[in-house]
Amino acid sequence: CHEPAIQEQVHLVKGCGGQYGFASSHAANTFGVAMILWLFFRKENKWFAALFAWAAVVSYSRIYVGVHYPIDILVGGGVGMVFACLIHFGMLKVVKAKINKK
């Protein structure tokens, strides 16, 4: 909505947000939640993969309302998934270390 070349084409729902929202936190949070739940529960229930569709819809909504560019969504989603993987693998290491201590 801050881009003069496309301002006439953007239909804002709640006004124009700040100018510096590079990585979308909505995308990071939703893709992070989807990834960590899928990593932990993918063997028990295959339906957790559907959370990625939910994350994509939430992320697309940020483009639709004109507050993010697609690259903002891709970077935000990537950041969320990377941190979810780091948390998952870190927790696995802690659990394995506790098991080996016994």
Secondary-structure map:
Blueprint: H1 25-41, H2 51-64, H3 70-101
Give a description of the structure.
This protein is mainly alpha-helical. Helix content is 62%, strand content 0%. It is built from three helices and no strands. Helix 1 packs parallel to helix 3. The chain is elongated and about 65 Å long. It starts with 24 loop residues before the first helix and ends with a helix.
Labels describing this entry:
single chain, 102 residues, mainly alpha, 3 helices
Rounded Rg: 18 Å
N-to-C SSE series?
HHH
The shape is elongated
Poorly predicted ranges: none
- By DSSP (H or I, 4+ residues per run), the number of helices equals 3
Largest sheet: none
Structure summary:
The protein has 102 residues and is mostly helical. It has 3 helices and no strands.
